[in-house]
Amino acid sequence: MPGKYLYEFAVIRVVPRVEREEFQNIGVIVYCKRARYLKAKYTLNEQKLVPFLGDLPIEDVRKNIEAFDHICAGDKQSGKVSEWDKADRFRWLTAVKSSSIQTSRPHIGYSDDLDETLDRIFKEQVL
Questions:
Q1: How many structural domains does the chain have?
Q2: Contacts of the segment 114-121: beta carbons below 8 A, 24+ positions apart
Q3: Which domain holds residue 120?
Q4: 93-127 pLDDT, tens digit each
């Protein structure tokens, strides 16, 4: 029997040169409508990431990835998007973009514990 929560998740990636389509997974975002859950988890392993970034400054990556936290939390500093409901914020964060921070297409699953699921997916896809 599946878990009690149907959730969606996407992998967060750094894509320093969009035209080359090379990326490194740095985080995940999990959304569950029923539980009113929207959280992102990420890491910036500078030792691994900086050589991969080329001309893209690590501070730009840090600023952009921290925006995921603010948008997930609905912080006012994230602008108008903070006023949207969680489903719309998740869709906006996971929309196809040609920028240095991108996400995979959303995937679905079932979970009894969304925080544990976020940690598990993070370990599987990022670490």
A1: 1
A2: 114/5, 114/7, 114/30, 114/32, 114/35, 114/37, 114/39, 115/39, 117/7, 117/9, 117/30, 118/9, 118/28, 118/30, 118/39, 118/41, 119/41, 121/9, 121/28, 121/30
A3: 5-125
A4: 999 887 889 999 999 999 999 999 999 999 999 99
